Amino acid sequence: MPAAEAYFEAELSVIPVDGNLVIEGGDGCFYDIPEEYTTDGVEADLIIYVTGVDQPDEDWLAGASACVLDGDNNRPIYGEIDWNYATLNTDSEFKAENDILTGLHELIHVFGFADNLYEFYWNNDEDAV
């Protein structure tokens, strides 16, 4: 994931958090927000909580969402990615690559690229789009 992190840091910009990012209020999407993020916080502009379950009777691979938005500028500050271990593909290089691409796809949802957040999109002139 370091390559993905470097790419997105170069391509996306946000109004940075001053000090530690503390999640005040709000709920997690799939899980409760860990206490460390609601008390002391962490040095970050976005917290991504990654979890996994083993549900062999289900056919989904991963799901993700931006769960908490910043109160000042409505950008995601906390999101979750949930993996279903039972559907991960390790049989071949092609299938494993597909899982990596799925991870990137889910990461983009956490960044706020989802239809329920379109109303919060801004252009470079700080006008709603």
Task: Please give a handful of descriptors for the protein shown.
alpha+beta; 3 strands; 19% strand; globular
Overview in brief:
The protein is an alpha+beta fold and 129 residues long.
Descriptive report:
This protein has about 130 residues and is α+β, with helices and mostly antiparallel strands. It is built from 3 helices and 3 strands. The protein has helices at about 1-10, 35-40, 95-110; strands at about 45-55, 60-70, 75-85. Strand 2 (about 60-70) and strand 3 form a beta hairpin. The model has no long low-confidence stretch (mean pLDDT about 85).
Please give the number of β-strands: 3
Spell out the helices and strands N to C: HHEEEH
Tell me the overall shape: globular
Count of helical regions = 3
Q: Report the helical percentage.
A: 10-25%
Euclidean distance between termini CA atoms = 31 Å
Q: Low-confidence parts lasting 5 or more residues at pLDDT below 50?
A: none
Biggest sheet overview: 3 strands, mixed
- Please state how the strands of the largest beta sheet are arranged side by side: 1-3-2
| Overall mean confidence score, pLDDT | 87
- Beta content comes to 15-25%
Structural class: alpha+beta
Rg value: 16 Å
